[in-house]
Amino acid sequence: MAAKKDHVAIIGAGLSGALVAAGLLQRGYQVDVFDKSRGTGGRLASARFGEGSMDLGAPGFSSAQRNKLLALADGLREHLQPWQVQYADFINSTNLSTLTRHVSVPRNSALTRALLQGAQLHTSTRVGEVVRLDGGSWVLKSDGGEVLGEYTQVVVAVPAPQAVPLLTACPDLARQAAAVRMTPLWVMLVQLEQAPERLQSLDWLEGGHPVLGRIVRDGAKPGRSGQHWFIQASDIWSEGHVDSSPEQVRDELLQALESFTEQPVKVVASRAHRWLYAQAGVPTGNLKSMNGLHVCGDWTCTAEPGEQGLDAACLSAARILQNLD
């Protein structure tokens, strides 16, 4: 099986991998994308919930983040809608301000699906090995040893611990990936019978709580409805409960919610999810590509102070596209 000219494989269908795929498709490359999950999105994934779905990852984007996305993929403009958010922090939840956030309709995972239009997408496919041939091309093999394809270049766009075994052909890249510390994050999707009084006028709460990192009214996003809430645990609490069961996490987050709202909540449905590799504790800096093997994602480069993982994901995608130009 010979590699076609400008045939690139991307491992990981999260935001950074999807941005690279869209950029390469615009430049005339043939692109295959592999992901171990059933769908796309990575930490922008959505999940089935009740009779519909909810955002399981990042709940929205700032205007600055929206602009970074559009700079890389202007076609996303039609998929992003502004959301005027009633915002407060946990310490002073009565001091409301209005912020603009941007979300994708009908859900945030639609962004990566739009970016991947035109790519050959292989979901539920776990890549186990990336092998360099004598002629300089690359072969991908499944974790069962099946040859998945031969490519001129490969982009590894998965969290650092998952990238390490895929980078053995370039020991220096594997060593740098192994040195990255990534931290977990617990989130919970919950449908309430009604909003607690303290949350009635709020869409977004964050900052200053020992257990709760963020509360977002998912049902208030454009095109959505219902008492659907996204509850994110704090970074420190998540790390301390990395090995807890989803049932224990659910119970403790609901207890924290009731303590904050000072009233019982009536839960219709709930789901706790652990993002094991949610954030890069210490990014590597800027990794250099080697022999047609590239690494991409928020852990591969350092964003500006105050910026978040999405900013670094955009930066890393832009860097990969620049290297391939």
TrEMBL record:
InterPro entries: Amino_oxidase, FAD/NAD-bd_sf. It comes from the Bacteria. Residues 102-320 form the Amine oxidase domain. One of its GO terms (molecular function) is oxidoreductase activity. Pfam families: Amino_oxidase (PF01593), NAD_binding_8 (PF13450). This is Amine oxidase domain-containing protein.
